[in-house]
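User: Structure please.
Assistant: Input sequence and predicted structure:
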Amino acid sequence: MSQNPSSLYDRLGGEDMIASLIPAFYVRALADPVLAPFFKHTALDKLHGMQREFFAMATGGPITYSGRPLAHAHHGRGITKHHFALFTGHLVDTLLDIGVTQEEADEVIKRINSYTNEVTGTSY
């Protein structure tokens, strides 16, 4: 449990929620014919670990993200805002499927959307 019981991370269910969210989310993302090519040469175990850290950090959890800066990790991959929207759409669907409320899912997406420019390589 985190030091801050009112954090979004704790309200969502903490590590237990992330442990069920990440694999279920990537089942959806990899099944999407538009998104699947982005993961073709990706080590999924490493990706799951990095995503676990990122998601915990983004929701106020006690875990520090140790991966490369998002802009570096996604640079030159051709990820557009459309791709990012598909990605977050799958995230919302997965969150709702595992029992997160719509209000909490919206709060998660608001936080994830703050990283859009870093992932898509846009500066505005």
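Residues 14-31 form the longest helix (18 residues).
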